[in-house]
Amino acid sequence: MKKRFFFTVTLAIFGFFFAQAQTNNDVTGNWAFESIIASESTTSNEYKAEKKPFEKITFNFSEDGAYRSTVNGKKESGNWAFSADNTSIVLTRKNGVTTSLEIVEITARGLMLKMNEKSIMFIRSIN
């Protein structure tokens, strides 16, 4: 767990100093859950419980603004776009329901989003 925490903190610090405005290319592709950011005082059992709802989340963001996601086996799709201030990814499902995911950080391989008040790290899949 310390290794993941170190990786995540390093990624966040690196991104802070080299941040740029997000572009569609920054998020286009397949993303899979990697880890949840936990405080240093979080026990192993608490960490496992906190990450469980996020473990089976995947996203596919297309260049044309379409997205597909799987959350605990449930598939959904619709359109995605950056918010006007570029701080969130806004998902609009086919039924019109909108969800805004705050961007904590984007790098070539990592996408950290705030979901349910937790910072969640996704790793870009190569496939």
Describe this structure in words.
- The protein has 127 residues and is α+β, with helices and mostly antiparallel strands.
- The chain has one domain (2-124): Beta Barrel (Lipocalin).
- It has helices spanning 2-17, 24-27, 44-51, and strands at 29-36, 57-61, 66-71, 74-82, 88-93, 98-106, 110-115, 118-124.
- Strand 4 and strand 5 (88-93) form a beta hairpin.
- The longest helix is centred in the N-terminal third of the chain and has 16 residues, at 2-17.
- It starts with a helix and ends with a strand.
Blueprint of the fold:
Elements lengths: L1 H16 L6 H4 L1 E8 L7 H8 L5 E5 L4 E6 L2 E9 L5 E6 L4 E9 L3 E6 L2 E7 L3
Antiparallel strand pairs: 1-2, 1-8, 2-3, 3-4, 4-5, 5-6, 6-7, 7-8
Fill in the keyword field for this structure:
8 strands, globular, 22% helix, 3 helices, alpha+beta, eight-stranded antiparallel beta barrel, Lipocalin, 127 residues
Taken in chain order, the helices and strands follow as HHEHEEEEEEE
How many distinct helices?
3
Radius of gyration: 14 Å
CATH class: Mainly Beta
In short:
The protein has about 130 residues and is α+β, with helices and mostly antiparallel strands. Helix content is about 20%, strand content about 45%.
